[in-house]
Design goal:
Helix content is 45%, strand content 11%. The protein is α/β, with parallel strands linked by helices.
Amino acid sequence: MPEVTLPDAYRADVETLWDYHDMHHTIRPTDIAIGLGSHDLGVATFTAELYHEGMFPRIVFTGANAPTTIERFPRGEAVHYRLHAIELGVPDEAILVEPKATNTGQNIEFTRKLLADHGIEVSSATLISRPYQQRRAYSTAKKLWPALEIICASRPLPLDEYIVSIGDVDRVINMLVGDTQRILIYPAQGFAIPQDMPPEVGAAYRRLVKAGFTSRLVR
């Protein structure tokens, strides 16, 4: 079984990255929710919770599959997210599914086209993702859809509880490290707007890379 306890040797650096990727936005009503597909079903859970709180009238779940999600979500991430949200009481007619996106840029681009095809105009969106994907999702969306007002949100679990919910501490650390690298390199590649990175965040990232958490790095 994968380890689910965060080792003390890495705790400070992992907590530094965890806090950095949280945009600390205040959740408030928006025109739509965009739930970004991944291995984390908590995205759909939290989207449903916010829907029931009246934070948005409509949801788009977006995502096909990555190698890490095919086994868990064989029909595609967005399809399974939709089914989970319906189980949690969200009406089917409030949900649109975008089933083809395989990266965050496509999540945004394909969702924008889907809404346009349905004649749905929006000026604001709640972008719901894994906790450590918030900053990358924000910087990608602002690059591709700059006029859209964006509120980033994630299921509000403390770090240790989140690791237990995923069931694999190495996966969480590797994903945190990978998303941090993408904040550094994607703006130069035209995929995202630049984001400030405090020196302590960069140092924590480098230490975790040196410790071997490299499986999600872009080569």
